[in-house]
Design goal:
With 403 residues, the protein is α+β, with helices and mostly antiparallel strands. The protein has helices at residues 17-21, 23-33, 49-56, 67-73, 79-86, 93-103, 109-114, 116-130, 138-154, 161-171, 182-206, 214-223, 229-259, 262-270, 272-285, 316-319, 355-372; strands spanning 37-40, 43-46, 62-63, 135-137, 292-295, 299-301, 304-306, 311-314, 373-378, 383-384, 393-395, 397-402. A hairpin with a 2-residue loop joins β1 and β2. The chain binds protoporphyrin IX containing FE.
């Protein structure tokens, strides 16, 4: 049997600005050469829907972790590397089940629904500040929404947001495998660690508890012995990092899709239920996450042998445009019946724990934004972020009529 190294495969230039601005142009040609796999400079890109769904869920043959990223930057032994290696997303089997299980009850659909009012208040308050301007960069505006919601979920003051926002912004830059990102995410990491450390230390010392807050759920898990002191701080940071860039980028690409469809945008203002459909189809049409996997030992999938140590990128944004599953995949159609089959939140044991929060946040956000920012239109060229890590728009200048 051929190893993937011996297989003739197309190359997808996923690290380039041209790819991130228009992946379909490259994808169609790549699909003609191989239906689900391509090469990139650091390994392989899994772009077929079924392969992506199967391999994202495969916790036996694949390690879900950041070893290749840590080695790329040569930062083994640093506290940042320890964070990347020890957090829930990097664990498998019982270690993963322990970390995820310690906070899973805080991420149920019921609990996420309880936060809808807080999400509504958050976006209304942001719009009170931003809407009178009549124009702004939607990506910048959107960046304040998930981080403020995150503070609400944790049950902590929004005061650290200005310094947290930049630090968070820089964390997922590590996944772009750009050497220039290293000083940014390393400096941001120190800010984030201080934030998590002081939150946990002060809340524990205060003895005050808020049964509804995620911070207290994490502290309770520590007190039950399910998390140690460092793991509790890492958990605060994992949730903050995993929920920030993802949510703001997904909301921003949704706005971009709606700029071309004023009819759909107006329906969002009228109908929260329709916002659910728009959010789901946005996750299908323009998913933003590309999780990494490392091959744990030689194994075979789809008639190809992968070798221990190979790096795979699970390209959810490309898998969600697989025409074998989604008819006319580049069309944005909120009425699409199978939009919910998307793999934007991953699959298997690591499926996004924050998916119900992310969905509610998008739905409530869209509904209120569409009511308060009327007739939105482009006011400049959008700029794309790197495809790897957290794809989406770096900037989306818009003008609108404040309601
Ligand atoms: C639109 C927004 C979001 C997207 C597209 C997204 C996407 C993903 C994906 C694809 C994974 C799986 C990673 C893998 O398989 O390696 C994941 C995992 C995770 N997400 Fe999200 N996410 C979003 C929002 C959030 C939010 C709001 C939170 C927290 C409140 C969150 C917390 C996490 C955590 C902790 C994991 C790791 C789960 C585990 O390893 O068991 N995410 N997310």
């Amino acid at each position: 049997m051929d190893t993937v190294a011996e297989t003739s495969l197309p190359v997808l230039p996923v690290e380039t600005p041209e790819f991130s601005a228009d992946p379909d142009r490259f994808l169609e040609a790549a699909r003609r050469e191989h239906p689900w796999l391509a090469r990139f400079s650091q390994g392989y890109v899994v772009h077929g829907y079924q392969a992506c769904a199967d391999l994202m869920a495969d916790d036996r043959n694949l390690i879900c972790g950041f070893g290749p990223v840590i080695d790329f930057y040569g930062v083994r032994g640093s506290m940042w590397a320890r964070f990347m290696e020890e957090i829930v997303i990097s664990q498998s089997g019982p270690a993963h089940a322990r970390l995820r299980g310690s906070v899973a009850h805080a991420f149920t659909p019921r609990r996420a629904n309880r936060e809808r009012e807080m999400m509504q208040r958050t976006i209304e308050a942001l719009l009170d500040q931003w809407a009178p301007r009549g124009s702004f960069d939607f990506a910048e505006f959107a960046s304040y929404f998930p981080v403020t919601v995150m503070c609400g979920l944790l049950g902590v003051s929004a005061e650290p947001i200005p310094r947290m926002r930049d630090a968070l912004e820089n964390q997922l830059k590590s996944l772009t495998l750009d050497p220039a990102a290293k000083p940014l995410f390393m400096a941001g990491w120190d800010v984030l660690w201080d934030f998590a450390d002081s939150l946990v230390t002060e809340r524990e010392a205060s003895g005050l508890h808020d049964a509804d807050s995620l911070l207290d759920d994490i502290i309770a898990a520590k007190q039950r012995g399910e998390l140690d002191a460092t793991e509790a701080r890492f958990m605060v940071l994992t949730v903050a990092v995993a929920g920030y860039d993802t949510s703001k980028n997904q909301l921003t690409v949704t706005m971009k899709l709606l700029l071309d469809r004023p009819d759909l945008y107006r329906r969002c203002a009228e109908d929260l239920q329709f916002c659910r459909k728009v959010a789901e189809e946005s996750l299908r049409h323009s998913a933003i996450a590309t999780p990494y996997r490392e091959v744990a030992h030689d194994f075979t999938y789809g008639g190809r042998q992968f070798r221990k140590g190979d790096t795979l990128v699970m390209a959810a944004p490309l898998a969600n445009r697989d025409p074998a599953v989604f008819a006319d995949p580049t069309r944005f159609d909120p009425e699409r019946e199978n939009a919910g089959r998307h793999v934007a939140f991953g699959r298997g044991p690591h499926i996004c724990i924050g998916q119900y929060i992310a969905r509610n946040q998008m739905q409530e956000g869209l509904h209120i934004i569409a009511r308060r920012l009327q007739n939105p239109r482009p006011a400049g060229q959008p700029e794309w972020r790197p495809f790897l890590g957290a794809w989406g728009l770096k900037s989306l200048p818009i003008a609108f009529d404040p309601a």
